[in-house]
C-alpha cells in the first residue's frame, strides 16, 4: 500500500478514536454547602445519556465530608438541623459530651484474652493507659450497622470525637455506606471554645481527653506555678518582708 493511501486512513482512524474517547465519559460537578460533590457517568459505545443499567459501565455518587470549626458546627445544628453523632469511647463520652447527642463508639474496649492481645493490653495499660487514661480498644465491627439502625442515609450528621481523627475515619465509613450529609469538627472537640455547646459530664468538652498522670501532672504544675507567681509578687511589692523571710530560712 502506498504512503498516499495510508495517510487518509490514519487520519480517519485517529479522528474516530478521539471522538470515542471524548464521548465515552461525562463528569458533572456541583459545589454547594460541601467542599465537593459529583456525579460521574461512564458509558459504553460512546453513549452519554444514562439509560438502562446495561448501558452504563459504572455509576457512582460521592459527597465529600464538610470540615468545620466549632462555631460553624453550632450553626449546622441550629440552622441546618444536623444531629450530633459522638464516636468517642465510653470513658471520654462520660467525662463530657454535647447534650442530646447520639453515641456510637468507633472503637470499643478490647477485652479479648488471646496471648497476643493480653501482651498488648499490658503494655498499653502500663504506658498510654497510665499516663493518658486511655482504654485499650479495638475497632467496633458493628459501628456502621449501629448507625444505620438510628439514622437514614440522608440524615444530616455532625460526627465528633476528641482530636478529629476518629470522626474523620467514622465519616469515611459512613460515606462508603451511603450517607451523603456528613460534617466533622476540624481537630475535634479539644479545639472547641468553652461554652460553644451545652454539655454534660464531669469535665469540659475540650478536656474530656485528659486523664491519668497527665492530669495530675497538670494540676501539680498549676500549683507550683501559682506558688512561684505569688512569691515573685510578694518579693516585688514587699521587698523588706521578703528579705527578712529569706534571712530566717535555714542555710545549708
Automatic annotation (TrEMBL):
**Residues in Rhodanese domain copies:** 78-201
Q: PROSITE patterns, per this entry?
A: PROKAR_LIPOPROTEIN, RHODANESE_3
Top-level taxon in the UniProt lineage: Eukaryota
Which is a Gene Ontology cellular component entry for this protein? chloroplast
Q: Which residues form a coiled coil?
A: none
Recorded hits in Pfam families, A to Z, give: Rhodanese
Q: Per its record, how is this protein called by name?
A: Rhodanese domain-containing protein
* Highest classification ranks of the organism: Eukaryota, Viridiplantae, Streptophyta, Embryophyta, Tracheophyta
Amino acid at each position: 500500500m502506498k504512503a498516499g493511501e495510508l495517510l487518509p486512513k490514519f487520519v480517519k482512524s485517529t479522528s474516530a478514536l478521539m471522538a470515542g474517547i471524548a464521548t465515552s465519559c461525562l463528569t458533572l460537578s456541583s459545589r454547594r454547602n460541601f467542599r465537593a460533590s459529583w456525579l460521574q457517568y461512564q458509558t459504553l459505545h460512546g453513549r452519554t445519556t444514562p439509560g438502562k443499567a446495561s448501558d452504563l459501565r459504572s455509576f457512582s455518587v460521592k459527597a465529600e465530608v464538610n470540615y468545620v470549626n466549632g462555631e460553624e458546627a453550632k450553626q449546622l445544628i441550629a440552622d441546618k438541623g444536623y444531629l450530633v453523632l459522638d464516636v468517642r469511647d465510653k470513658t471520654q463520652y462520660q467525662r463530657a459530651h454535647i447534650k442530646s447527642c447520639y453515641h456510637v463508639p468507633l472503637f470499643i474496649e478490647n477485652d479479648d484474652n488471646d496471648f497476643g492481645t493480653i501482651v498488648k493490653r499490658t503494655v498499653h495499660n502500663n504506658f498510654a493507659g497510665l499516663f493518658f487514661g486511655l482504654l485499650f480498644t479495638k475497632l467496633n465491627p458493628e459501628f456502621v450497622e449501629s448507625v444505620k439502625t438510628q439514622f437514614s442515609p440522608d440524615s444530616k450528621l455532625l460526627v465528633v470525637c476528641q482530636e478529629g481523627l476518629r470522626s474523620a475515619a467514622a465519616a469515611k465509613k459512613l460515606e462508603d455506606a451511603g450517607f451523603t450529609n456528613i460534617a466533622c469538627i476540624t481537630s475535634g472537640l479539644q479545639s472547641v471554645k468553652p461554652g460553644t455547646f451545652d454539655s454534660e459530664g464531669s469535665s469540659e468538652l475540650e478536656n474530656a481527653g485528659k486523664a491519668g498522670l497527665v492530669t495530675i501532672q497538670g494540676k501539680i504544675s498549676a500549683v507550683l506555678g501559682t506558688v512561684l507567681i505569688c512569691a515573685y509578687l510578694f518579693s516585688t511589692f514587699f521587698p523588706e518582708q521578703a528579705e527578712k523571710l529569706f534571712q530566717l530560712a535555714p542555710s545549708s
